[in-house]
Design goal:
CATH superfamily of the largest domain: FAD/NAD(P)-binding domain
Strand order of the largest sheet: 6-7-8-5-9
CATH topology of the largest domain: FAD/NAD(P)-binding domain
Number of strands: 11
């Protein structure tokens, strides 16, 4: 099982590469994607942002952002829970260990030891269920793992479509809008090939694989 040991360092490296390549990073919360004729625009508070290409890669929030332009995609939040201890005697070179009888996986990261479990289908903004963190703490204690309890709790939403395939392609409503979301648990694993495919679409080049199976229109309606 491969892993990225330091996710924060990866994010920093990607940001640096973008800026060094001439890109600019602007952080803000988008209110939605709307149509102006046959072009998509991004509403950011009182501002409207326009671009030659907009890549929608917003995880579990992607479907919500499409609602202002009338697109309906059956994306749901597949939520997972973990607790993380910043210090641990767990070996640095130990690969991820799955405790199958407890449906829990323990992974060493640069920032500490993480115990993770659970698949929960819910609304993205629904409050977390504290009993799931309590169960993880009980598993860690019963197994005698070198984990400083209670650990830092976390809950995150994975973007999941009914057939567990991502949405990759070009919008039929707005020709400048590209889709790259819905990778459920495999966003990091599939990021590189997804980036290559979307890059080819934006450049008007043939894609390495047929993207028809990943067209979000497979669920009906125009997207």
């Amino acid at each position: 099982s491969g892993q990225i040991a330091d996710l924060a360092a990866l994010a920093d490296a990607l940001r640096s590469a973008l800026v060094e390549g001439g890109g600019a990073i602007r952080q803000g919360q988008a209110d939605g994607i709307a149509l102006e004729g046959d072009q998509a625009v991004v509403r950011l508070s009182a501002e409207t942002l326009r671009a030659d290409h907009i890549v929608l890669c917003a995880g579990a929030a992607s479907a919500e952002l499409l609602r202002p332009m009338g697109a309906r995609i059956p994306l749901i939040a597949e939520r997972g829970y973990h607790i993380q201890s910043p210090t641990s005697r767990w070996p640095q070179d130990m690969p991820p260990v799955a405790f199958e009888d407890r449906s829990m996986i323990v992974t060493r990261f640069a920032g500490g030891l993480r115990a993770a479990s659970f698949v929960e289908f819910a609304a993205r903004a629904a409050p977390p269920d504290p009993s799931k963190w309590a169960r993880l703490r009980a598993h860690v204690a019963e197994l005698g793992l070198p984990f400083d309890l209670p650990g830092e709790p976390w809950m995150g939403a994975r973007p999941t479509l009914p057939d567990y395939l991502p949405a990759i392609g070009r919008s039929a409503r707005a020709r400048n809008l590209l889709y790259a979301f819905g990778h459920q648990h495999l966003g990091l694993t599939l990021a590189a090939i997804t980036g290559e495919l979307v890059g080819a679409l934006a450049a008007g080049q043939p894609t390495a694989i047929d993207l028809a199976p990943f067209d979000p229109a497979r669920f009906g309606g125009t997207t």
